[in-house]
Prior knowledge:
Number of strands of chain B: 0
Largest sheet of chain A: 6 strands, mixed
Number of strands of chain A: 10
Shape of chain A: globular
Helix content of chain B: over 70%
Order of helices and strands of chain B: HHHHHHHHHHHHHH
Radius of gyration of chain B: 21 Å
CATH class of chain B: Mainly Alpha
Structural class of chain B: mainly alpha
Strand order of the largest sheet of chain A: 6-7-8-3-9-10
Shape of chain B: globular
Oligomer: heterodimer
CATH superfamily of chain B: ABC transporter involved in vitamin B12 uptake, BtuC
Strand content of chain B: under 5%
Strand content of chain A: 15-25%
Distance between the termini of chain B: 38 Å
Radius of gyration of chain A: 18 Å
Amino acid sequence: MLEAKNFSYKEILNIPLFFLEKKSFSVLLGQNGSGKSTFLKALCGLNGTLSSKVILNEEILSKMSPKKRAQSVSWLPANTHASPELTVEEICLLGRYPWNSGVVKKEDRLIVSEILTRLGLKDKSSQSYLSLSSGEQRLTDISRVLSTQTDLLILDEPTTHLDLKKSFLVFSLLKEKVEKEKKTILITSHSLELTKKFATHVFFMKSGSLLLDEKFQALSFEKKIKETFELEEELFLLEQ
Amino acid sequence: MTKNKRNLAKTKTLIFIFSLLVFLGSLEWSSSSFSILDAFEILLHELKGEKLSEKLITAKTILFEVRFPRVLTAALSGASLGIAGVLSQGLFRNPLASPSLIGTTSGGVLGGVLFLSLGGVSHHFLGLSFFSFLGSFFTTSGILFLFHKLRNPDFTKLLLVGLSFSTFTGALCQFVISLEESDYHKSLMIYRWSLGGFYHTEWTDFFLSLLPLSFGIVASFSLCSKLDVLSLGDEVAETMGVGLHDLKMKTLLILSLLVGVVTSLAGPLPFIGLIAPHITRKLIGAQHTELMKYTFFNSMSLILLADLLAKNIFHHKELELGILLSLIGAPFFLYLSLKKEI
Lengths: 240, 342
């Protein structure tokens, strides 16, 4: 599905090889500032120097037309902006832009309406973004990205601001997208329980590098976490 | 239809009817005592081929040579400025970023003042509007460029950049005007123009500006869906296939065209591009196509009402529209920017 080679960028990233399998739900774990967001952005083509090193469906990312790229991969940033007066439905319909160039059709409304129903936002669809709680705003952003219906989705901490139940809802919906609609999904997260329950692949990142060597791979999940996050007295967090 | 949608449809109809009433009202109420009914009477007489009475001949001159061109030009200019406001706010992703606050207007004035002082005749419309356009374009591009260079661009910094550009171009304007001191007539003419207003508007002004302004307005509508996507942020817009450079360049050009042409027609008319889009956003929402459509009507109503007020506020003297708009607009801006703080 996606392959990235020789990813080195300033002092921030140094990844010789990265590979995403089709129909996988991968979670990238790592400390704050370890380069996760920069890495995700580069995979979406937002880093001029690195986007020529990403191969998506056997095509070089930087050589794809902007439209085709937008139809192939969608991205949710860690922090989003939206005009406060736009309604939930209007924001999600923007997710259809790569397909309809702004001319909204009935089909687009159906797609958006179905996703909003799944994420429990249907009865808020004509409310303004400003009037929502921060969790509902995050769910709106996720709905917008899902509305694009690309085969590859890259989401930077989708569950920020979400309570336990909503986080579970998002993870299980993403897993369902992978299993039923053959999507490939890569996210970053700090939710270990949900990662363990839903992810098909887990990547660990430390100071701009992915921990991929055999010695590390042989460790248990808990030991990997301990190593990645340099846990000491906080170890009780892993005990349950 | 849900209740919400029905209310929205009602609001849209009211905005349209209101602007129509203001338009007709502007033709009707003015300092002279002729009414729009006289216009119909004149038309009726002309159609029948009857001779006009003396009173009607005076009425004809006042209505058709003074009032109609003034009201039509003001309406078109107002609509253009409102739409320019929507464009600049979309470009900078901030509802307060109106052309007069980010330096587009003051750039246009500088261009115009330079043209007039370099020997342009006061009504040489094409040259004047071209210079105003250039002034607007270079100032706004400069500000946009600097804004993108900032590490943490926020509105306060945009305002500071805009303020320093406006102060700088303002000082240059005054310098150029001061050079013309020996030519009293010329410096007065430039000074009057830089105050802003429609007191000297003729049919030629309307017809000459009709083409560039209608082009600018139509072209603005073609950018709406891209500006919607841009509201999600530069990077998201890029991943969604919007060519950022292309979009920003087009927006800058059209914005400068609209502001430049209106400035050359009537001098600087500040705050229309702030107030009208703001009201429309509250009433209709932020989606650009709808926002632009109803800002068109609201800014028309706003400028015509302001022009009526400017004409009639003093008994013997007309107040310059630009001055009146600043007097209304500055407190409005203060209110908007402090609303969240207090």
